[in-house]
Automatic annotation (TrEMBL):
It is a peripheral membrane protein. Residues 162-164 are annotated as: G5. This is GTPase Era. GO terms for molecular function: GTP binding; GTPase activity; ribosomal small subunit binding; small ribosomal subunit rRNA binding. GTP binds at residues 23-30, 70-74, 133-136. An essential GTPase that binds both GDP and GTP, with rapid nucleotide exchange. Plays a role in 16S rRNA processing and 30S ribosomal subunit biogenesis and possibly also in cell cycle regulation and energy metabolism. Residues 15-183 form the Era-type G domain. Residues 70-73 are annotated as: G3. GO terms for cellular component: cytosol; plasma membrane. Belongs to the TRAFAC class TrmE-Era-EngA-EngB-Septin-like GTPase superfamily. Era GTPase family. It holds the Pfam family MMR_HSR1. The lineage of its organism: Bacteria, Bacillati, Actinomycetota, Actinomycetes, Micrococcales. SUPFAM superfamilies: P-loop containing nucleoside triphosphate hydrolases, Prokaryotic type KH domain (KH-domain type II). Residues 23-30 are annotated as: G1.
Length: 311
């Protein structure tokens, strides 16, 4: 990050900086990122703890640039993967300008929220904003009650209630976050919405499609990679040909392979179909997707396997 950027009180100055949303699994961090950036980049899923990679989304505005670093949740590590994720969180949060602490309006503040709030003391450099998410699912009194409780946790630089679903207060949260950023020239090109590699985004779309409708224990055992791409000649000159993408889905055990593939391969066909449509939308062209399911025994605990999957 650029050390030359400076604090300023000039309200008309262009500001740019990094923000990371933290909070318990499922509080709506990825959905908020997508809603702010306006393009699907982070994986959202109703299952807890499915965001693995630090993905950046960028909100471009005439008065500033908000670079969103989407981290996996802070949680107590149980596996080597868990430890690496926590190390990633530490590295990310040590380097951002603002941390947005997300708490859902429709659930009481609990030990999980307090655990994460306490950890925020380890990142004194970052300004801290409390974001009350999912206000569409809570009553007025519940929202007020929750805001009061949030206020007792620490002196926040700001507290903002939002809904990523109805869009309520999303412009306000963007204003508030930008206001807290240092004065700085734009840090990214205007057309960029994410700096994640295209293959990584494709792999996330495949993983997301494969997660849909599977049992609770599977999310942590699924990974996807793009192995190869081949361009087919276009039928007519001046057109794009078909893009063939060869990808793998990794599970940890033989039994999980069956779950992913389904009876007679029916589930895998659905997953491939869903993922292909998403990839075509992302790339804006026709795609042929070949998906293979592979077993990589206990990959979450195996350093070599983790390396191969890009963790
Ligand atoms: N009603 C409502 N639901 C929301 C809102 N924001 C997110 N959700 C839902 O909450 C669930 C979890 O959202 P995510 O954005 O995946 O949550 P997350 O905090 O990124 O979760 P992890 O990746 O597991 O850490 C999804 O089913 C979302 O559709 C909101 O503002 N209102």
């Amino acid at each position: 990050m650029n050390e030359e950027r400076s604090e300023s009180t000039d309200a008309t100055a262009f500001r740019a900086g990094f923000v990371s949303f933290v909070g318990r699994p499922n509080v709506g961090k990825s959905t908020l990122t997508n809603a702010l950036v306006g393009e699907k980049i982070a994986i959202t899923s109703p299952k807890p703890q499915t965001t693995r990679r630090a993905i950046r989304g960028i909100l471009h505005r005439p008065d500033g640039q908000l670079i969103i670093v989407d981290t996996p949740g802070i949680h107590r590590p149980r596996t080597l993967l868990g430890e690496r994720l926590n190390a990633l969180v530490e590295a990310t949060l040590g380097d951002v300008d603002v941390i947005g602490f997300c708490v859902p309006a429709n659930e009481k503040l609990g030990p999980g929220d307090r655990f994460i709030n306490d950890r925020l003391d380890d990142f004194p450099r970052a300004k801290k904003v409390a974001i009350l998410t999912k206000v569409d699912e809570a009553s007025r009194p519940e929202i007020i009650d929750q805001l009061t409780r949030l206020g007792t946790l620490r002196e926040w630089d700001a507290v903002v209630p939002i809904s990523s679903v109805t869009g309520e207060q999303l412009d306000i949260v963007a204003d508030v976050l930008l206001d807290l950023m240092p004065e700085s020239p734009p840090l990214y090109e205007a057309e960029q919405t994410t700096d994640e590699g295209e293959d990584d985004r494709i792999a996330e779309l495949i993983r997301e499609a494969a997660l849909e409708g599977v049992r609770d224990e599977l999310p942590h055992s699924l990974a996807a990679t793009v192995d190869d791409r081949e361009e087919r000649d276009p039928k007519r000159e001046g057109e794009l040909g078909l893009l063939e993408i060869y990808a793998s889905l990794y599970v940890e055990r033989d039994s999980q392979k069956g779950i992913v593939i389904g009876k007679g391969g029916s589930r895998l066909r659905d997953v491939g179909e869903r993922a292909r449509r998403e990839i075509e939308e992302l790339l804006g062209r026709r795609v042929y997707l070949s998906l293979r399911v592979k077993v990589l025994k206990e990959w979450q605990r195996d350093p070599k396997a983790l390396g191969r999957l890009g963790f």
